[in-house]
Amino acid sequence: MNVADAQTLADWVKKGGVLFLLANDEVNADLIHFNILAKKFGFEFNNDLILHVTNDKHFADGALNTGKSAVFPTSKKIFIKDASSIKITTKARSVLKTPKGENVVVVSKYGKGTVLAVGDPWLYNEYTNGRLPVDFQNDLAANDIANFLISKSRKK
Predict the structure, then answer these.
(1) CA–CA separation, 82 vs 110, rounded Å?
(2) Please, what CATH class does the domain formed by 3-153 belong to?
(3) What whole-number distance in Å separates Cα of residue 64 and Cα of residue 29?
(4) 16, 19, 44: which is closest to 31 by C-alpha?
(5) N or C: which end of the chain has fewer CB within 10 A?
(6) Which has the closest alpha carbon to 104: 24, 13, 14?
(7) Domain spans of the chain, in order of start
(8) Measured between alpha carbons, how far is 139 from 49 in angstroms, rounded to an integer?
(9) CA atoms 65, 70, 74, 79: torsion sign
(10) In this structure, is the dihedral angle defined by the CA atoms of residues 85, 91, 94 and 100, taken in order, positive or negative?
(11) Distance (Å, rounded) from C-alpha 112 to C-alpha 8?
């Protein structure tokens, strides 16, 4: 990511675009460059590691209760591991926090558009295919997020 590309994307969002940003922990993502874009929307990914899960016996270390929100209306408990926390600087608002109060999902209204950001690329087959203990609802969370993003992309 560079300044020119970040501005192009920000201009697109401002006109009504919907952007979904999935970061990762500092070891597995170039957060310095990714933050050039994130800062446009009022937040940045921190160079840290939250929700660290050492092995499959410790799924509880990545458990998050979603509560009721516009982003997660049906899923109640999800699993995210080894993420970066998100610092809100201006326009963004927190959607989901860790038990310690760290932001892990944020949303930002930017012009006519919307940006949703998660500190981990957590919605992939390993965590939506039934491998997790049954009380985790990542499959429902994936549907919730898709529906949220689609709702924001509809012409008003």
Answers:
(1) 28
(2) alpha beta
(3) 22
(4) 44
(5) C
(6) 24
(7) 3-153
(8) 24
(9) negative
(10) positive
(11) 15
Helical packing angle, 3-14 and 31-38, nearest 10°: 40
- Residue 57 CB: number of other CB atoms within 10 A? 8
**Residue 18 DSSP class:** E
pLDDT tens digits for range 2-47 = 999 999 999 999 999 999 999 998 899 999 999 999 999 999 999 9
Strands 43-45 and 86-88: antiparallel
- Rounding to the nearest 10 degrees, give the CA dihedral for residues 8, 36, 142, 131: 140
Tokens of 42: 């009022």
Band (156; pLDDT cuts 50, 70, 90): low
Q: Which residue has the tokens 């509560």?
A: 67
Residues 100-104: what's their mean pLDDT? 96
pLDDT (tens digit per residue) in 109-151:
999 999 999 999 888 777 777 788 889 999 999 999 999 999 9
Distance CA 47, CA 24 (A): 10
Residue carrying the six token digits 């919605």: 123
Contacts of 12 (CB under 8 A, 6+ apart): 19, 113
